[in-house]
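Narrative summary of target 7.
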Amino acid sequence: MNSLTLDAADEIVAAALKRAQALGKAVSVAVVDAGGFVVSVRRCDGARPLTPDIARAKAYTAAVMQRPGKMLKKWQESQPVFFAQLSQLPGAALPIMATEGSVTIKKDGEIIGGLGIAGGTADEDQRVADEVLASLGYELEFAAWGVAGTAAGDHGRTGSAAHAEQARNADGAEQARNADGAEQARNADGAEQARSADNPEQARNAENTEKGA
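Modeled conformation, tokenized:
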């Protein structure tokens, strides 16, 4: 079983601060364990005073919700009251923030914590988090919320499967039409045979009538 050690957390924080500095951004970085408990938090020189708390909330969200914050955005938009209540629960240590810069830390398929970046734009915070975790060997693929086994990188394969299913349905429909056409042809042929069989009978009846006259 993997666990997030202090050394590993400090390594992530140091790499994130260095990457943000390269972008010219003053940020705060927080790392929590799988239960959302803080392991390491640092605020670089010049970062706004509130950014450490924001970073902690982002990291907490990614860990306890077990998905990056940006993957929760549509859910939050569709159920804002529910998300507001999550932060009011007795066991909630921090607010739930469905936003960029909130990334779940996963290693060997196991979720071991969360990383929060605050201080840049939403895209910059997300970029720093993704690049740092990828460079350190952590996994960035997560199943879509509520869809077990469908990873974010599997959309193309999912689409291909859908097209294959459509093709099978179309083929089945074509086969059904062909079968129906064959049935109609058989019915028409049978009717023609019946008419052909009926005509000789009519001819014989006419001939007998002529003879009687």
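Confidence is low (pLDDT under 50) at residues 149-174, 209-213.
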